[in-house]
UniProtKB/TrEMBL annotation:
Domain of life: Bacteria
InterPro entries in the cross-refs: HTH_HxlR, WH-like_DNA-bd_sf, WH_DNA-bd_sf
SUPFAM superfamilies on file: Winged helix' DNA-binding domain
Pfam families the record matches: HxlR
Sample GO molecular function, one term: DNA binding
Species this protein is from: Algoriella xinjiangensis
Gene3D superfamilies in the cross-refs: Winged helix-like DNA-binding domain superfamily/Winged helix DNA-binding domain
UniProt entry keywords in alphabetical sequence: DNA-binding, Transcription, Transcription regulation
Record's protein name: DNA-binding transcriptional regulator, HxlR family
Stretches assigned to the HTH hxlR-type domain: 11-114
Length: 117
């Protein structure tokens, strides 16, 4: 007798892992913020800079979820006015491969869709 193609417990584990991933990285801004911070690790990333560079983002979108999940570090500087800087954490860098694959797929998809039949 042939073995089933998918093992239900493994499938269930994979679905749970995918659900966790989408919960943490899903949403319009989270991956954009992570990508932005990964690409700019050597410079100060204040909210003002991010607001200028990521069109449409607002302070509320700099999700505390990313900080709570140890992907982003938020540091309040003792300046006047107060400055808040954001940086990617070492753990946050683990999303780099995922983000690069999504960027590559996005380019491929855009090329496919923009082709005229």
């Amino acid at each position: 007798m042939k073995k089933p193609i998918s093992d239900p417990p493994a499938c269930s584990t994979n679905l749970l892992a995918m659900n966790d991933t989408l919960d943490i990285l899903g949403g319009k801004w989270k991956l954009l913020i992570l990508h932005y911070l990964i690409q700019r690790q050597d410079i100060s990333n204040t909210f003002k800079k991010m607001e200028r560079d990521i069109t449409g983002i607002s302070a509320k979108m700099l999700s505390k979820d990313l900080e709570a999940n140890k992907l982003v570090h938020r540091e309040v500087k003792d300046t006047k006015p107060v400055t808040v800087e954001y940086s990617i954490t070492k753990y946050g860098e683990s999303t780099k491969e995922i983000i690069n694959v999504l960027v590559d797929w996005g380019k491929l998809h855009r090329k496919e869709i923009m082709q005229e039949d």
